[in-house]
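Hi R.,

Here's the chain you asked about this morning:
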Amino acid sequence: VQLQASGGGLAQAGGSLRLSCAASGRTFSRYNMGWFRQAPGKERELAAAIKGSDGSTYYADSVKGRFTISRDNAKNMVYLQMNSLKSEDTAVYYCAAGSSIYGVYNYWGQGTLVTVSS
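And the predicted structure, written out as tokens:
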């Protein structure tokens, strides 16, 4: 699986951005997909994830209620809608694919930078 993330950029605090991740391969629907982020000087964290089997989702407490992850298996796409952005959301965001929503992610896209100005 090859992944390509896009949609990052500069947003003001309180604003919105939508990240997209395009996946190659005919088995996309089998994979659990995650959006990770890494802020400067911090460890990478799982922000949101979505199962391939039933579309159930996971959100980190820091983004719950503000971010929405979704997927379109017909288009091999996964999205992250980010609303009510905060300066602490500034990070490089990565999409990833794996067999376990909470476990190891085997495939990674390149990062896309999100900068939120206060």
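The chain has a mean pLDDT of 95.

Let me know if you need anything else.
M.
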